[in-house]
Amino acid sequence: MKIKSLIILFLLTIILITPIRAQASELGFSVQALLPENQINKLHTYFDLLMKPNQKQTIQVAIKNDKNEDIQVEVNANTAITNSNGIIEYTDTNPKLDDTLKTSFGNIVQTENLITIPKNSTKNASFTIQMPQEPYNGIILGGLHFMEQEKATSTKNKDSLQIDNRYSYTIGVVLRENQGEIAPDLTLPAVKKGQILGQNTVFTNLKNPKAAILSNLSIIASIYKQGETSPIKRQSTKNLRIAPNSNFDYAIKWDNQKFKPGKYKVVIEATGQTKNWELQKNFTITSKEAKAFNEKAVNLKQTGIPIWIYITGTALLVLIVGFVAFNIGKRR
Known about the structure:
four-stranded antiparallel beta sheet, Immunoglobulin-like, six-stranded mixed beta sheet, 2 domains, alpha+beta
């Protein structure tokens, strides 16, 4: 149990404070969490706070401006979600939330959205947390996102390349009312058909309905034609992380091939730190869906004899028959 706890703490440290480079050549500002007394572990560089029902608390982050000019920093308190790559993300200011999320971080934290930092100085950004009245079992996960505001630029040539020198930081926040552990879970609510950059793709919607982070998740995804035992598609992915009470669409590539109408079954074999799952779901690709997606798809592989070979072969056959008939007629 102690080793397990250390692993979880290490993973949280990695994912909960993340500097994000945004097309820049030098760092213009930095941030530091000012940890309060109810910080569970003072060695962490992110907020991990032990709260109480209906508690109201203001936390602060120091923003240091290293430039010789004033800067403005956009500040947001965002709910943690899981992006399409199976990574916990804190940068979406208006995410689509899962229906199992009772209390979202973004709804219980208030802040000033734009802060001016004088040149070569430090200023604190404040975030007011209002915990729900009812006791909350599990964690509420979010991120404090900081990005230097883009300066208005003018150019005589509208087609010239403009470089946006901006950086952003995210400091994670974990809110909990007890230190008991909740086990994450994994479900497969839906299977959808679609495309990524013109490539036919099957999307399996994977959901963690519990108020706990699902870390170090490995997946083997297989697709079968219904009634068959050999998969027609198979792929594996490791080191996925799913935020509490969130879902994402895990994409299974169709390898530049056409969708074929029929009935299929997807099987997800998932391995977590403490639990394994085998999830299955049947789905159908209709003739109408296959036609629509195939017409929009790019770089499709030819699975049969191309039509131009039939046309060329027919033309050659006509020429040969005509040539033979012409020669027979001359001899007569």
